């Protein structure tokens, strides 16, 4: 549906997508701060503890592209609405989880419902806002994302400390239910530019299997089985690419990757950026609570520095990308992120709080300057018909990057600590793991600067 013929208010669309962006990111950051408490209740080791966060990211990443395509065919609002309903139900299931295994499984299913939201929200937003206003709208949407990330450590830490970690999921249920009336009463119209096309079921299954194998295999790469699974996943993705080239209506239109350099390198840059930054919150949450002995609430108050900075600078960066080439703004942002990661390589037992907060502020500015312009570049580089798939591709890069980031942290912990609980006797090994992980993240982010510069000009 063309925006000119759609009676829905742009403000309503922005408001609804902002609420869901806040909800999904709040859950990610609040769970990170609660992991040590969850681990203590369920008596889990460091690796299992990491999987409570990673399971959600794995399924969300694997299902994003298929749900993006389904939304293009059958309606973005329809898939988005189903996603919100499922998200509220699965949040309740997580709150009632009796052990770590059940929690990991319900978190994985929660990731599936999140894919329905991630794969449609930005596409709906892009469908409604014209090109000259898109960067600003995406900036506000990303600001909501970072406000969710900001409140996650603070509010999640407070709830974990005062009410227990299960209260975080109850809060998610309440917020999900608040969004639903706005969808039915205010979000009129539908967006399905690929209506009538046949859904590529076989391609979707091949894609999901390949991506899951790659991400899972990477996270357990220290074992022979992990290497085999990773290799199998790469083979399956190669088969997927070959299959998609012969399908009339592919789940992922690979023509974008063949000729659209802005689309290609903007997605690669997003993947690298999230791979190098997502686990920062996870690592610092553990560091502040284990090494510094802070409560979840106190740790959250320190960690809020980064996402608050993101929330402040994202709208500014979005407006800049409407006037200045996203290539320039995003590359500067990636460079600042590198400068912010380097100080964390030197974390120690006596590192000051001021040192940590200052470094988080720098990473926050860098990430904000990168993310809004990069999103604008991706969504503005494709035709309207492919907004759903483009949004899902970006979301896949984000969630795959986040899963790889957690995978790197889990892999390094497994190599330094093994499958043991984090305790005072192995704090030196924990610190070695943390510093090694930040070295890897810094190198990744340097590579990301070059990927960002290589995208070329959008206008």
Describe how the helices and strands are arranged.
Blueprint (H helix, E strand, L loop, with lengths): L9 H33 L3 H29 L1 H20 L4 H29 L2 H33 L2 H20 L15 H19 L4 H21 L10 H5 L1 H17 L1 H13 L4 H8 L1 H19 L2 H16 L11 H28 L6 H30 L10 H27 L6
Helix pairs in contact: 1-2, 1-4, 1-5, 1-6, 1-11, 1-12, 2-3, 2-4, 2-7, 2-16, 3-4, 3-6, 4-16, 5-12, 5-13, 5-15, 7-8, 7-16, 10-15, 10-16, 10-17, 11-12, 11-17, 13-15, 14-15, 14-17, 16-17
What does this structure look like?
- α2 runs parallel beside α4 and α16 packs antiparallel against α17 (427-453).
- The protein is 80% helix and 0% strand.
- Mean pLDDT is 84; it is low at 1-7.
- 58% of the residues are buried.
- The longest helix is centred in the first third of the chain and has 33 residues, at 10-42.
- The chain is mainly α and 459 residues long.
- The protein has one domain (3-199, 249-453): Up-down Bundle (Growth Hormone, Chain: A), CATH 1.20.1250.
- The chain contains 17 helices and no strands.
Mean of all residue-level pLDDT scores: 84
In what range is the share of β-strand residues? under 5%
**H/I helix tally:** 17
CATH class: Mainly Alpha
CATH topology: Growth Hormone, Chain: A
Q: How many structural domains does the protein architecture include?
A: 1
Order of helices and strands: HHHHHHHHHHHHHHHHH
User: Which stretches are poorly predicted, pLDDT < 50 over at least 5 residues?
Assistant: 1-7
Gross geometry = globular
CATH superfamily, by name, is: MFS general substrate transporter like domains
Straight-line distance between termini: 25 Å
Task: Give me the secondary-structure category.
Answer: mainly alpha
Helix content: over 70%
* Shape-level CATH architecture: Up-down Bundle
């Amino acid at each position: 549906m063309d925006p000119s013929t759609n009676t829905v208010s742009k403000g309503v669309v922005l408001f609804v997508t902002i609420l869901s962006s806040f909800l999904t990111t709040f859950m990610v950051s609040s769970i990170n701060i609660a992991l040590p408490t969850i681990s203590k209740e369920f008596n889990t080791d460091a690796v299992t503890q990491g999987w409570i966060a990673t399971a959600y990211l794995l399924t969300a990443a694997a299902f994003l592209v298929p749900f993006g395509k389904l939304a293009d065919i059958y309606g973005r609002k329809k898939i988005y609405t189903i996603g919100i309903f499922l998200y509220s139900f699965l949040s309740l299931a997580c709150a009632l989880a009796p052990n770590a295994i059940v929690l990991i499984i319900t978190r994985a299913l929660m990731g599936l419902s999140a894919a329905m939201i991630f794969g449609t929200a930005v596409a709906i937003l892009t469908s409604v806002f014209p090109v000259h206003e898109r960067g600003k709208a995406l900036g506000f949407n990303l600001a909501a994302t970072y406000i969710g990330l900001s409140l996650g450590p603070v509010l999640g830490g407070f709830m974990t400390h005062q009410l227990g970690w299960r209260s975080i999921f109850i809060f998610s249920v309440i917020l999900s239910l608040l969004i639903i009336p706005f969808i039915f009463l205010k979000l009129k119209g539908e967006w399905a530019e690929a209506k009538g096309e046949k859904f590529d079921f076989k391609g979707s299954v091949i894609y999901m299997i390949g991506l899951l194998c790659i991400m899972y295999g990477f996270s357990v790469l220290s074992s022979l089985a992990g290497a085999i699974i990773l290799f199998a996943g790469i083979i399956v993705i190669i088969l997927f690419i070959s299959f998609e080239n012969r399908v009339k209506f592919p789940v992922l239109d690979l023509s974008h990757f063949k000729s659209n350099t802005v689309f290609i390198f903007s997605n690669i840059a997003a993947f690298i950026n999230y791979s190098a930054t997502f686990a920062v919150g996870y690592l610092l949450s553990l560091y502040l609570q284990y090494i510094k002995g802070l409560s979840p609430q106190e740790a959250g108050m320190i960690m809020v520095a980064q996402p608050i900075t993101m929330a402040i600078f994202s709208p500014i960066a979005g407006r800049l990308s409407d006037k200045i080439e996203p290539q320039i703004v995003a590359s500067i942002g990636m460079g600042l992120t590198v400068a912010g990661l380097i100080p964390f390589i030197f974390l120690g037992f006596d590192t000051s709080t001021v040192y940590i907060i200052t470094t988080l502020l720098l990473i926050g500015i860098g990430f904000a300057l990168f993310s809004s312009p990069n999103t604008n570049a991706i969504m503005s580089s494709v035709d309207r018909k492919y907004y759903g798939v483009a949004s899902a591709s970006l979301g896949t890069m984000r969630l795959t990057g986040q899963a790889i980031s957690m995978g790197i942290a889990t892999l390094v912990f497994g190599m330094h600590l093994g499958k043991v609980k984090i305790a005072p006797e192995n704090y030196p090994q924990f610190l070695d793991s943390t510093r090694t992980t930040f070295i890897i993240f810094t190198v990744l982010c340097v590579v990301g600067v070059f990927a960002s510069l290589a995208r070329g000009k959008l206008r």
